[in-house]
Write a structure and sequence with these properties.
Layout lengths: L6 E2 L2 E2 L14 H6 L7 E5 L4 E2 L4 H11 L4 E5 L18 E5 L5 H5 L25 H13 L5 E4 H5 L5 E3 L4 E3 L3 H4 L3 E3 L4 H12 L13 E5 L14 E3 L3 H6 L1 H14 L7 E6 L6 E5 L8 H8 L6 E2 L9 H6 L2 E3 L1 E2 L10 H5 L4 E2 L2 H12 L7 E2 L1 E3 L13 H6 L19 H10 L7 E2 L7 H6 L4 H11 L14
Parallel strand pairs: 3-5, 3-6, 6-7, 7-10, 12-13, 16-20, 19-21
Antiparallel strand pairs: 1-2, 4-15, 8-9, 10-11, 11-14, 13-14, 17-18
Helix pairs in contact: 2-7
Length: 480
């Protein structure tokens, strides 16, 4: 007799995926793989959902693909190191992320009122991660594993706090998160390429104190001579000290202008900022950004063997964030708009990286073949819905460009805006067997569409005719 599927409400639910398809979360899981120790431990403030929209899972799978033994500790108890110690001390390093959201945004409304739920936790339960989770987890890992285990922090919380920054919650300027966390390295932006380089060099026997020159990272040093900045091919810019920018708003404004002007694109400088006074003085060194992933690299990352489900330890509990993205496909990263209020360019970069058409269609076929697929793809997009395969058409101009935005105040003459390939992708995607509806849920840049005299109007017509679920999201920033 067949076993009945578990029922949630009135809907049958698909069987839980097998535990062995996930990365280890316990000693028993390690033993099942024949492992005595991990190479890398990933600590995340989100529930363990093995899906390409969850950064911790992506980094873990990227490292696994390099042949490393990787384990995951999700939402550990931050009052004790016991959760962190359950799989032992990792051989190379501990990687830490607060999760897909900044923990303070996750916890508080804009009115600084405590939120009653958490979309990245089973059952939407609030309170499963601490405030300023990156720093708390890093200090806890130091307590658990001692001073010799390298600690690498990353994710959006660390990325946006790589250097002095205004903190809305404390209403003051705070130093780089490297200071309160005590971490050895900070990875900013999309971290797959820096984390692979870090793992490679540590596995080769280098000491973490010597990893001062990895693009896409920041370090806190007692002496600038350690970084040997004079021998670097990149130019170095010393920013006003943390104490100066924290004391004077005008200095902070100039610091912010320099930071965004000089840490952008191919000609980005290495930034240096002093923190502390006298004997306590140290230096935050923010290395140049890592090159954006190529199409081939992005395809490989997107097609790693993700289970695309929460870990069965949660017993099928509802995880709101997972339900939102379960049937969506990310086709690009980065955003060329550079809007001052948005963290996408700051975190993902101004250069748009696009997956290949073949890779997107393969993922769509994989989703459509799942037994629980009902025929609707909720989003084919990314940071911006309609910048797929767009970018600077002039390598010479890109190499010297200092614009914060490719589309404001006008769309740059070198920025390619052809929507033809995206229209073709939509047509092929909605023809995939099993797909009944293919919606675009990401924000649409109408200014970019209007700049495409050849295919812009055709794109908008295709969008409205076939890909609107009832609510069309419009990126608001270009209308004023």
């Amino acid at each position: 007799m067949k076993r009945a599927l578990p029922v949630v409400g009135n809907r049958p639910k698909a069987p839980l995926p097998a535990r062995e398809r996930f990365l280890p979360i316990s000693r028993d899981d390690m033993a099942a793989r024949g492992w005595d120790a991990l190479d890398v431990l990933i600590v995340t403030g989100d529930a363990y959902v093995d899906h390409p929209s969850f950064g911790g899972a992506v980094i873990a799978r990227v490292l696994e693909a390099r042949g490393l033994k990787v384990g995951v500790v999700a939402q550990p108890d931050w009052r004790s190191p016991a959760d962190l110690l359950r799989m032992g001390k990792p051989r190379l390093f501990v990687g830490i992320t607060s999760g897909a959201m900044d923990s303070m945004v996750n916890h508080y409304t804009a009115h600084k009122r405590k939120r009653s739920d958490d979309a990245y936790t089973p059952g939407g339960e609030a309170g499963r991660r601490p405030d300023r989770a990156t720093s708390v987890y890093a200090r806890l890992c130091r307590e658990a594993f001692g001073p010799t285990t390298p600690i690498v922090i990353g994710g959006i919380e660390a990325s946006l706090r790589r250097i002095s920054h205004y903190d809305y919650w404390d209403d003051r300027v705070l130093p780089s998160v490297l200071v309160p966390s005590g971490a050895d390295l900070l990875v900013y932006g999309q971290g797959e390429k820096p984390i692979v380089e870090i793992a490679r060099r540590l596995a080769a026997g280098e000491d973490v104190s010597g990893l001062t020159d990895v693009p896409g990272t920041a370090v806190l040093l007692p002496d600038l001579a350690i970084a040997d900045l004079g021998s670097r091919p990149r130019k170095t810019l010393e920013l006003p000290s943390h104490e100066d920018v924290a004391r004077d708003k005008k200095v902070f404004a100039e610091f912010s202008r320099l930071y965004h002007l000089e840490h952008n694109g191919d000609n980005a400088r290495i930034l240096v900022q002093a923190v502390g006074r006298g004997a306590q003085k140290r230096y935050v060194v923010v290395n140049e950004p890592m090159a954006a992933p190529t199409t081939e690299e992005l395809d490989r990352i997107a097609e790693l063997p993700y289970v695309r489900d929460p870990h069965p330890i949660y017993g099928g509990a509802h995880i709101p964030a997972m339900e939102q993205i379960k049937w969506s496909i990310q086709i690009l990263r980065g955003c060329a708009a550079g809007c001052s209020f948005c963290c996408i360019t700051e975190h993902q970069g101004r250069d748009v990286s696009s997956r290949s058409e073949a890779s997107v269609l393969r993922e769509l076929e994989t989703l459509a073949a799942r037994p629980d697929f009902k025929g609707t793809i909720t989003d084919v997009g990314g940071a911006t819905a309609n910048m797929w395969q767009m970018g600077c058409g002039s390598p010479e101009a890109h190499a010297v460009c200092r614009r914060a935005s490719c589309v404001y105040p006008t769309v740059c003459k070198f920025f390619t805006t052809d929507h033809g390939p995206l229209i073709d992708l939509y047509e092929k995607a909605r023809a995939v067997k099993g797909v009944k509806h293919l919606f675009v849920g990401s924000g649409v840049r109408y200014d970019v569409a209007q700049a495409d005299e050849q295919n812009g109007a055709r794109y908008l017509k295709e969008l409205v005719a076939h890909h609107v679920s009832g609510q069309l999201k419009v990126a608001p920033e270009h209308v004023c």
